[in-house]
Amino acid sequence: MILRHIPLPLTPYTTAATLQTHLVAAQLAHKAAAPTSTPPPHPAVITAQFHPTYTCGRREIGTVSPAQRDYLTATTPWGRAQFHETRRGGQTTFHGPGQLVAYPVLDLQRHKLTPRAWIHLLESAVMSTCAHYGVATARTENPGVWTPAGEKKICAVGVHLRRNVTSHGVGLNVGVELGWFGRIVGCGLEGKGATDLRREMGGRGEVPGVEEVGEVFVGLLAEGLGGVAVVREVVGGGGVIG
């Protein structure tokens, strides 16, 4: 089995969301047609950096007031952000330049994974990615990946499941402007802060680029899935090409 890695350049959230919707639809269509002799779509993972964007999770859909939206999309010293509602789990978070967003799309049943095991695998791949750069991380009672003391989040995790097809995923801070996170109560947790690989590396070695970190993460995710080889694809000419 192969894992299609589809890296995007710095892009609007809606571009990645549209591509993700296409990949999910292909997985669901195959499941709806079963039994069939047609092989199922390969699992895929989109990696990207987004233009500044705040997203909320499914529990907050319809609850973010116009005043809150105006505040989040107002001009800041770092630019202006967009706001989008999503179907993922979790609450409001930020995505932007310097953050790796990874959206794996696959059928958990094919990989014999429960939803809980899938979240654990995503967190493990993130933690191993951080360890690759000499940064220690930990799990806590709160979602995501944290510094060992549990005071600062380095990676948000939020997924959506439909008929065991998973979408959305992780947002790993590599070298992001942390001021954006100061405009929200990150994932609804008062008193907690955000950090990134650049700060946690503390000058130990060269800070990696987001694309490099994406390659490391996807490779480690494939190892966790087992028996999966990564095939890198690029987007161009109006579609995905191998």
Using only C-alpha atoms, the radius of gyration works out to: 17 Å
> Approximately what portion of the residues adopt beta-strand conformation?
25-35%
How many individual domains? Answer: 1
Fraction in helix: 25-40%
| DSSP summary: helix tally | 5
The CATH topology assignment is BirA Bifunctional Protein, domain 2
Mean pLDDT: 91
CATH superfamily membership: Bira Bifunctional Protein, Domain 2
Distance between the termini: 15 Å
What is the overall shape?
Answer: globular
Examine the secondary-structure arrangement and name the CATH architecture: 2-Layer Sandwich
Quaternary state reads single chain
- Under the CATH scheme, which class? Alpha Beta
Give the beta-strand count. Answer: 13
Walk me through the structure.
Helix 3 (115-132) packs across helix 5. The longest helix has 21 residues, at 13-33. It is built from 5 helices and 13 strands. Helix content is 28%, strand content 27%. It has one domain (2-241): Bira Bifunctional Protein, Domain 2 (BirA Bifunctional Protein, domain 2). With 242 residues, it is of the alpha/beta class. The two termini are 15 Å apart. Strands 1, 2, 6, 7, 8, 9, 10 and 11 form an 8-stranded mixed beta sheet that branches.
Question: What is the gist of this entry?
Answer:
The chain is an alpha/beta fold. The chain has five helices and 13 strands.
Keywords:
disordered C terminus; 3-stranded mixed β-sheet; BirA Bifunctional Protein, domain 2; globular; 13 strands; 242 residues; alpha/beta
Helix and strand layout, with pairings?
Blueprint: E1 2-7, H1 13-33, E2 44-48, E3 53-56, H2 66-72, E4 82-85, E5 93-95, E6 99-107, H3 115-132, E7 145-146, E8 152-162, E9 165-173, E10 193-194, H4 197-201, H5 210-225, E11 229-232, E12 234-236, E13 239-241
Parallel strand pairs: 1-2, 1-11, 3-4, 8-10
Antiparallel strand pairs: 2-6, 3-5, 6-9, 7-8, 8-9, 12-13
Helix pairs in contact: 3-5
